[in-house]
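Q: Could you fold this chain for me?
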Amino acid sequence: MKRSLRPPRRVIRPAAYVASLLGAVVVVGTLLLLLPVARAGPGGAPVTTAFFTSVSAVSVTGLSTVDTATYWTGLGQAVIALLMQVGGLGITTGAALLGVLVSRRLGLRARVYSSTETGGGIGDVRRVVLAVTALSFSVEAVASVVLTLRWWLGYGEPLGHAAWLGVFHSVAAYNNAGFALFSDNLMGFSSDAVILLTISAAVILGGIGVPVLLDLIARRRRRRDFSLHARITLWTTGVLLLAGFACVLVAEWGNPQTLGEMPAPTKVLNSWFASVSPRTAGFNTFDYADANPETRLVTDVLMFVGGGSVSTAGGIRVTTLAVLVLVMWAQARGDREVDVAGRRLSLASVQHALTITVVFAVLSVIGSLGVMTMSSATLDQALFEAVSALGTVGLSTGLTPDLGVPAQVWVAVLMFVGRVGPTTLATALALRQRDRRYQLPEGRVIVG
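A: Sure. Below is the predicted structure, expressed as structure tokens.
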């Protein structure tokens, strides 16, 4: 029997597929933003500015080197909104949706690629893709209507402009991107509960994760039937929101440059918003450069953790944090296994959580060192900027516009890695998992 002399065809891994598609969208977005009609001023935008903005929008981060409200024309802002939407939905999610609509079927390879982005099983792709799209557009539509009415009736904006403001900010909120069409972000609306609570709700729904939202919809009347993933996500999210709220309220209560001069109810509102936004949304109602160091440190932690799995949020994800806490609790009690809610966590879940956290921490250190090396930023500023970029948050102490070209490119790389990193790393770990049919002799290492 003759053997084929042709080399085996190289298989593209799903992680590389997702990263390459996101990179292609970044290139297209950069080219569109380079057009003279996209910039409000004379001529086209510099390549670095267009590239940085495109990466920030596709990675749903929100960091910007220019004022989005005045630098870009309506066309440029529309491109940014479109890039945010594409980045939020996920390239492979959109491709799988087109496959469903056109052929009503998906091949095995398409299912594997799509499951990389959505986080669902291969058999769940069609349902997850449709659910992602339906949830995204539904939440954005409701938020758009509320925000449009508020800016139209409450602030006297023309209906057309109010509608554009509503659409843009709802897309940015649900996709957890911090772009705003106001030069001071949302600082001018620090006392407006309608705008801040609407955006907060969209941010939380976008960052909590599709599996949890589907679970809430399907089992809203039977709380005991919630999946373990949904329970852990909801509990951890609630704890982080309340803890962040309390820390910011206490730290900034008397700071005259942030919350100090506000009435008590407004302080509470802004502290809540400052706890929601670092979950990778990136909106701000006060200048973080004026915030106390304690607030910035708490915000660093919130940005590092991020939101839920299979969501528009970034960071290590709340389930990863929960697994680590459960592991420490089990170790403190002397338990050999990690139990929660009547279930035993798999060893793979524990190993993945540890790997993702360590990798993200190392990248945060490397990112901070890079920012410090390429600029005059202090450790506090560099860490805030690096974690914000890696966590695809978008908050800044005002450092971004003052960075040189090398530092801006460095931050852009951090944003891109933060967008594709946790998802593709988790997928790569899962795909490489294999069972060995033997065990080596046990060895002991003194730890601690």
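A (continued): The chain has one domain: 14-429.
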